[in-house]
Protein 1
Amino acid sequence: MSFSNYSAKITTLFLVIGLLPLLGVSYFLYSEEIGILQNSLEFTLTTHSENTSSLISKWITERGNTIIGIASNKIHVSKTNVLLNSDSSDEVYRANFELQTQSSIYLNNNPWLIEYVVSDSNGKILFFTGSTTPKENLSTQDHFISALQGKLGISDISKSPDVIKNEYGFYDLFVPTMWISYPIMGEVGIHGVLSARVNVFSIPHWDGMISDYHSLDVYLVNSNGYFISKPKFFDFDDGTIKRPELNGFITDPESNKFTQIFNLIIMTNKLNYLMIMLTMLEKV
C-alpha cells in the first residue's frame, strides 16, 4: 500500500516536472502570437488613419486655395473698396448686386461652399450670401485674425450657433461647421476679410468608411475632443439617434479607468485641427 502511494507520488512529480516546460513554451508561443497580431493590427489601423488624415488634409488645402481665389477676384477687391468708402447709395447698391451675381456662380460651382461673408478689418459685415448674417463674432476667431495678418485662416470644426443644414439635409442648430478666411487686399494694405463657411459633411471620409474586419468605425474628432462624424453603427436609425458630440473616452490599460482620448494621443502639426481615430473591432 505504501509502495503504491510512493509510486503515485513519483508519477505525479514527473508529470508536473514534464508539464511545466510544456506550459512555459505554450505560454511563450501564445504571447508571441498575440504580440504579432497586435503589431499587425496596430500597423493596419495606423496606415488607415494616416491615409484618411492625408486625404482630408489635401481636401481642406484645396478648399483653402479656392477661397484664396475668390478673395483675390478683382470684382471682390473693387466692390469691397466701394462698400468701405463710397457715400453713394447707388454705388453701394450696384456693388452689392455685382457681388451677389458673382457669389451665385461660386456657390453653384462649389457645393461644399455653404455661404461667405465680407467684413471690414474690425469685423463689421459688409456683404453676405446667406439669408441672415452669422451670429458668430468672426472677428474674435483665430481664422479671422490670421487673415488680418495676411495669411489663410482655417478654423477648428465646432458647433454652429446658426441654423444650417445637418448631415440629413434638414436645417438644425449646433451642426458641425468650419470657417476659412482670407484677406481681400487693396492697393494699400488689407481692405477686408472674406470668410467662407464650409460644409464639413463634404469631407471625403464620410463616404469612405472602412469595411474590413480590422476596424469597427472611423471617427472624425475636433481638437476639443468632440465627435464630428456620426458613427457607422448608428446608421440603422438616423431619424432618432442624435449626433454624438461628446468627449471621447477609452479605458486606460494601466489604471483600467476611463480617460479622455486626447490625453493619450499626441497631435501632430500635419492636421492640428482634425484627428482621425480608428477603433478596434475586438480586443486581442
Note: The two ends are 51 Å apart (CA to CA).
Protein 2
Amino acid sequence: MHPRETLLPRPQQLFEGAPLEGVGGVESHLEDNSARGDDAANGDALRHLDRVRYYELRNSLVLDPVSVRNLELLAPIFLEESTRSPGPTTLIAALDVTVTGMGARLLRSWLLRPLLDPEAIEARLAAVTHLVQQTVVRGEIRKELKGILDLERLTGRITLGL
C-alpha cells in the first residue's frame, strides 16, 4: 500500500472540496524530511500521523504575518530599540505571566487568533476579571499549575516513542 493511501484514505469525505494540493505538499515535505532522520530506515518517522483532519477557524480572526509583525504581538519590529527599553516591548511579553508551557501556548494562540463572537469575548473577559479580582484563588491556581507537567509535549513524546 502506498503511504499516501494510509494518510489520506478518503480525501473527498474528509475535506469536502477543500484544496488537497496543500495537504499533499505538506505530506511530501514531511516524507522528504523524515528520510533524513534516524527513523527513516525502519519507516517509523511518520507513524504517528495516521489521518488528516479538516480544521476550520470560524470563530477566530486569522491574522496575517504582516499584521502580527506590525502589531508587535510576538516580536519587536526594531530589536535594537527593544534592548534599551526598560519594559516589555511586545504584547505577549506584557501579558504572559503563565506558569506552564501549555498556558503560554494557549495565550499565544489567543493572541494570534482573536475571538470574533461577542458572547465568547464577553465570557473570556468575565473569566479574566473574576481571576483578577480573586487574588487568593488566582494564587492557589497558579501554585497548583506549577506542579503540572507539560502534558501536550509529554503526549507527543510518548506518541513518537522518545
Note: DSSP finds ten helices and no strands in the chain.
Protein 3
Amino acid sequence: MGRLRVPGWLLDPLSREIVWRVVADSESAEVIRAIRLLYVAEQGVTVVIDRESIRQRMRELILRLGAPDRAGGTVRIYVERLLAAADELPDGEPKFAGLLRTAFDLAQDRSQDGADPVQENRAAIYALGIVTGHVYVEWAAGRVLDAQLRKAVGRHMGRATVRGRADWVRHYAVSAALAIWSSENASDAAGLLKEELDAGPGGSGFSFSDLLANRAGTTLAMAATADPDSARRIQEFLAGPWHLDQVFPEAADLPEGFSDAQIEEYFGGIGGARYQQMIDEIEARVSTTYAGKITGSGRK
C-alpha cells in the first residue's frame, strides 16, 4: 500500500484523532472489546475475536476481516455428496471415517477429470467443516446452503465421532476449514483461545486433547492444499484404506478439564515449561500422521 511520511509534530494529535474515531464508532468499539489475541508478524496480522460477545454481528465482521472464499458452488456439490453418504453410514466412528473418505474420493475423481486438486481439496475441507463441524463454516466458503440443506446438515451434526468423541470431530473439522480460510497460525490461535475461554468461569475446562484435535485438522488442511502434488497424495491416501492413527492420533490420555488456576499451578500457565512440554508432545503425535509426514509437522 506504500508509505506516508508524517511529521513528528503531527503524529501525536493525528494518532489521537484516529483512535478517537475508531473507538467512537459503535461497531468498531464492539470489535475492539471482543479482541482476545492480536499477533503481528512480517507475514501479516492474526486477530482472534471472542465470538460470544459479538454473535449478532459475526457474519458482517467475517466479511469485513476476510472476504469469504468464492467456492460456494463447488462446496455445495461436496456437501450434497456428504449428506447422501451420511444417510447410509452408521453413527460414530464409521461416519467420521466414511465422510472423510467420501469427500476426498470425490476430490480425487474431479481432479482426475481436470479440476485443480488444491481447489477440490479446499472444497472438500469446507464441506466437511459444514457437515461435521459447524454450519457457520459456510460463512468462510461463501453461499452454500439453502433451507433444505441446512436442515439436513442439522440432522447429522454431532453424530460422527472419533475415538468415541463427537467434540473432537468438531475441533478437527472446523480447525481444518479455518486453516484454509485464514492461516495455519490463526487456526491454531483460535483453538488455543477457545481452550483458554473454557478454562474460565463456566467453561468446560482447558483441554490438551482438544488442542491435538485442532492441530490434527490444521495439519490435514495444510498438507491437502500445499501444492498440487501434496493435494493428490492426500486424495489418494484418504480415498483408500487407512488406519485411524494415520489421521487422528491417540488423545484420550492428554490432560483436560483444567481451570485457569490449575493451568498456572500445574503447567506454569500458557507458555510455561510444562505447558510447552505438552505442546511438544501434541506436535510429536501429529507428526506421525500421514499429513504430518507431508508437512513436516513438529514446528519449532
Note: DSSP finds 15 helices and four strands in the chain.
Protein 4
Amino acid sequence: MFEVDLSAAELNKRGRKVVLQDQPFQVLALLLNRPGEVVSREELQQTLWPSDTFVEFDQSLNKAIQKIRQALGDSPDHPRFIETLPRKGYRFIAPVEQLAPEAGSFESPTPDSADPDMGSRNRRLLWMLATGIVVVAGAGVARWWLPRPSGTSGLALTQLTTDPGLTYQPALSPDGKLVAYASDRAGEGNLDIWVQQVPRGAPIRVTHDGSDDHEPSFSPDGRSILFRSDRAGGGIYVVPALGGEPRKIVEEGRQPRFSRDGNWIAYWVGPQHHGGALYVTPSAGGPARQLVKEDARSPVWAPDGKHLLYRRILRDWYVVPLDGGPTVQTGVVDLLLRRGFSIGLEFPQLFRPDPEIWMAEGNSIVFSGKNGDSTGLWKISLSPDTWQVTGEPERLTAGAGVYGYASASAAGRIAFSSLVRNPDIWSLPVHAGHAAGEMQQLTNDADDDLSPSVSADGKYMVFESNRSGKRVVWSKDLDTGKEKALTDTPSSENLPVISADGSEVAYVVTSWPDYDYKIYAIAFEGGPPKKICDMCDQACQWSSDKNRILVHRYDEKEGPPHLAWLDVRTGQKVKLLQHPKYPIWVGSLSPDERWMSFAASTGRAEHGDWFILPLLDRAVTSERAWIPTDGVQVQWSTDANLLYIISEQDGFPCLYAQRLDAQTKRPTGPLQPIHHFHSARRSVVEDPAWRGPSVARDKIVIALVELTGNIWMAEPQ
C-alpha cells in the first residue's frame, strides 16, 4: 500500500518515505490525476516539458517512468501500476483512493465509509488492495473529495418471497406482472427457475434439472426466459415463461440479456470469478460475435439498444457499441471509490459495484454497491453524449443488509434480492487423495470465520473471526469442540497458522494508520503474545522443529516481494525465494521440508501461477527449476506425494488432488476431483488468503460462505 501526498510531493509506503525525484514525481502525479485513462506522451511533454525547456524529451520521460517503477516495485512486462501503450502513452492501472487532507478546508470522510474493522481508530488510510494507492490531496490541489452520497429515495417495498433457503436473482417481465427467479426451494440441493405473478401469485417451477439453473432474463414480449444452466458443461438456455422444454442456445455463456428489440442476446464467457469475454448473438440464431475479448462481464443494454455497458474486474464500467467500435470508460468506479464504496475481493457477487439496470429515465444505472456497513441498491447517471458519469450516486435502499441482483419493468418497478451471507469453517475427511466422507461444519455463528489452519494430526485448529467486532485469532479443539479467542488487541489480527504439532500459533497484526505489518507468536493454550518479525505480512508455515517460520516479506529496500526463513528465537531473516521480475507470494512446505510450493505473479493468472521448487541453502532467483502446477492455494499432503489444489478447470473453484512423482515431484496424470463446490447456496470463499485449504492427515479444512435470501419489490410511493 502506497500513499502519495501531492502537496508535500512525497511518496510513502506503510509510513516510510520512498525516494522519488521531482520530475518522476510530477509524472506520477499527472497519471494519478487520471487513473485508468491513457495519458499521451504529447500531453506529458506539453505539461511537464514545455517548448522552452531544452531537454531530450523521450530519454527524460523514459527515465522518469523507469524511476517510478523502481519506487513502486513495478515491472514493464507485468505491470501492476503503470501500463505502457506503445506509441500512445501511459496508464495508471492500480486502484486509487483519494482522501482529503487531515486538516484544512476540505471535508474529511465520515466514519461509515471506512473499514469497520478499524473501529474508532484513525481512518486516514483505507484498505483497498495490496497494490493500491492512496492519494492525499493538499491545499490548492483539485477538490477530489466531494459530499457524501445522498439519502434514500421514497420507495414502497413489498416482499415477494419468504423462503428459508436461497431465492434470488429476480427478473421482472417487461409489463411487471411476472417475476422469475432462481431458488433452491424444491429442497433438492440445486437452483431451479421459478415464476410467479406479482405480487402474490403462486410460484410455478419452470426447470427441473439437477444442476443449478439461475440468472433468468425475460424476452421483450414476456413469453420466454433466458437463463444460465450449469448442466452439460454450462451454457445459456431458453424456455417458455410458464414452463416447457429448455433449449440450449449458447455454450458456456453467463448473465444473458435480451436487447430491447429482442433481436440480440448479450452474455459473457469465462471462469466464475475472474476474466471474461463479452459476446452478442442473434436471438433468431446465427454465429455469435465477440465485442470485448478479455476482462468483460455483467452486460447491460443501453436504452437505445445500440450500446452495452459492462464491468472490468477491479477497474471500471465501460460502454461498447453494438457495431464493434471503440469502448468508452465511464469513470463510475473511480467516483464510487471517492465516495467510500468498496470493491473488496472477499465476496465479489455482493461487494463489487456491478451495473444491473440501465433506466431510460435520467439515463441512470441501478447497481448494487457496498458503502459503509451495508450493501444496497444505488443509481447513478451517465451522459448520453459522452457516456461519462454525471452527478452523484443516489441510494435506493436503506438498512444494514445486503441488497442486489436488481431487475426493472418498463414502468419502473424494481425487483431485487435481500441476502444474508455467512462464512464458516468446514472439514472434509480425506484418505489417499480421495474424499472419505461428507463435509462437516466446524464453526457455526453469524459472524465471519475465515483463514483456517489445522494441526497435522487434525486435532487443533485456529482461524480468524470478527465475532468480537473486529478480526482476532480464535482457537478450537476439534476433539472437545471448545473455542476461545487467543488474542485481543486494538489492531486487526489475521491469517493465523498453527504449528504441525498444534502447540504454537503465528499470526499477522496490522496497525493503523501506518499500515504496518508484524508477525506475532502465541501458544495454542494462550498466554502473552511475542512479536517475532517487523515488515512481514504473512506467516506461511512453521518448520517441523518450530525454530523457523516461512514468511512473506515486501520491503522496498530488499527488492521485490519474496519468501524468507524467519528464525523465531533471534528474528534473523534469510531469503529463500526471490525473482527480479515476478513478485513471489505465499508458499507451502512439504512435510520433510525438502520441497516448497509457491505462487508467483507471472501475469498469467489472477491469483498467481503456482510452482514446486526443491529447497536449497541459498536464495533462489532463477525460474529454470520451477515446476508448474495447475491451480491455486497448492498444499502438500502429509506424505508429500500429493498436492491438494483449488482449481477452476470446470468453471468453479473446486478441490482436486494432483499426484506427484516420488523423486522429482513433477505432476503425474491429470487433476483428480475430490469435492465440487458448484452450489450457489454454499461455495468457496473467493479470496485465497481467507479460504484455505489447510491439510491434516485425515482431513482438509476450508472456509465456505453460505448465502440465503428472498425477493423484494420496490415501487415509487
Note: The longest strand covers residues 414-431.
